[in-house]
Amino acid sequence: MAGASLLMLLDDIAAILDDVAAMSKIAARKTAGVLGDDLALNAQQVSGVASERELPVVWAVAKGSFMNKLILVPAALLISAFMPWAITPLLMFGGLFLCFEGFEKIYHSYVHRKDKKSEISEKEIIQKSEQDIKAFEKKKVKGAIRTDFVLSAEIIAISLGVVAQSSLLSQFLTLSVIAIIMTVGVYGLVAGIVKIDDLGLYLTQRKGEGPLVAVWHKIGFGLLTSAPYLMKGLTIVGTIAMFMVGGGILTHGIHAISAQITNIALMVSDIAYLGGLLAALTPSLLNAIFGVIAGAIAVMTMTVITKLRS
To answer: How far is CA 72 from the centre of its chain?
Structure first.
């Protein structure tokens, strides 16, 4: 009897794991878009950090991301079980926060262009004492973890939608698998991106003769030349991603706007030759525009509130 019970238990465990694997694949496909935005946002968050401190900063943000998911996974299960109506409002609040942060970056960039002293403030911070460098890094890490919290919440919410009809154990295991895979994947790639310039330097310093060494040198110089442009590009892409993700969360939460965006996408799909491409791009473009407008309103509101308080 004991042997039969053990075999039944092992069979149940195998069935659960099989379900978890299948649902994890579906959830991973559905969250792939957010994963790309998460990668762009977190890669640009370490810009301005000294080269030798890039990996420690990435590791600090990765640990913060794991903590975010340790909070979000149980919270998502509890909210889904007892307050499912609260998921959409909470996500919309997170989406508005992303739009706010995105527009705030643009606003401060504009202000700093007008003020040359502000424009070099980060460089001055990096050149100051060790205490100032730590404060600068701490600010970067806090900002990255804050942004990661919103994106992680969306990943967990999308994954929860995939496993909503499954048992509580299957939900917990699937969300845990997705949380671990996404965190390791994103921050592993971020670590690789921020060290591209170091790889380029290593390749240019390889010793020896022959065509193969010359090829390595050319690749190294190419990586060194492209690394600054890649980081600048990721900064731009990361800011756009804030509006796309944040605006997308907001529009999905407002049925009337979401329906209008769907109708517009269907309309442009009838255009000859480019209809399919335009239909795919239109929702993202409209979500980004909505995100910019929402972010501008949020920044103006916070500015007025801050002035009134002071």
So the answer is: 15
> The dihedral of CA 70, 28, 157, 299: what is its sign?
positive
Query: What is the Cβ-side half-sphere exposure of residue 71, based on CA atoms within 13 angstroms?
Result: 11
Q: Which of 21, 40, 39 lies closest to 183 in space, CA to CA? A: 39
Tell me the two tokens of residue 270.
């009838």
Long-range contacts of 194-201 (CB under 8 A, 24+ apart): 194/43, 194/46, 194/54, 194/55, 194/58, 194/231, 195/54, 195/55, 196/223, 196/226, 196/227, 196/230, 197/51, 197/223, 197/224, 197/227, 197/228, 198/51, 199/223, 200/224, 200/225, 200/227
The Cα–Cα gap between 113 and 273 comes to: 42
Length of the chain: 310
Query: DSSP letter at 210?
Result: S
- Return the C-alpha torsion angle 18, 24, 26, 27, nearest 10: 160
Give the pLDDT confidence of 54-87 residue by residue, as tens digits: 788 888 888 888 999 899 889 888 888 888 888 7
Which parts of the chain fold into alpha helices (H)? Answer: 2-30, 32-45, 54-82, 87-114, 116-119, 121-127, 130-162, 168-194, 196-204, 211-253, 255-268, 275-309
Pair of tokens at residue 286: 């409209």
- Contact status, residue 186 vs residue 31, Cβ threshold 8 Å: no
Instruction: Write out pLDDT tens, residues 239-256.
Output: 888 788 888 888 988 888
**Cα torsion at 298, 300, 302, 304 (round to 10°)?**
-150
DSSP codes joined into one string, 118-131: HHTHHHHHHHS-HH
pLDDT (tens digit, 9 = 90+) per residue, 168-210?
777 788 888 888 888 888 888 888 877 787 788 888 887 767 6
Alpha-carbon distance of 283 to 295, in angstroms, equals 18
